[in-house]
Specification:
With 92 residues, the chain is α+β, with helices and mostly antiparallel strands. Helices cover 38% and strands 16% of the residues. The chain contains five helices and three strands. A three-stranded mixed beta sheet has the order 2-1-3. The chain starts with a helix and ends in a 16-residue tail after the last helix. The N terminus and C terminus are likely disordered.
Length: 92
């Protein structure tokens, strides 16, 4: 297994593909995102993690995690997304 496979997790969110750094995922300990990417729930790093939810909302959640602010996310995804951006309570 190369370091690339351990540093990047692949997600398939309703047909949209995302590459997410392990560092970003680990910023949210005990979250559903971290659990979904764990070896316990997802032992094969070669396969994408399937999430049956809106790819648009997932993209906004990733933006929020990367930049630490919901301001740009809320402009692109108004009130209906605000609760989904909270990764610790999101139900993927």
């Amino acid at each position: 297994m190369t370091s690339l496979h351990t540093s990047i997790k692949l997600f398939n969110v309703c047909g949209r593909h995302f590459e997410v750094s392990r560092d970003l995922i680990e910023q949210q300990p005990d979250s559903m995102l971290e659990k979904a990417a764990s070896e316990t729930w997802h032992p094969d790093p070669e396969k994408a993690i399937l999430i049956d939810r809106s790819g648009d909302i997932f993209a906004q959640a990733m933006e929020y995690l990367r930049y630490g602010s919901a301001s740009s996310s809320q402009r692109a995804c108004p009130k209906r997304c605000s609760s989904a951006i909270s990764i610790n309570t999101a139900r993927f």
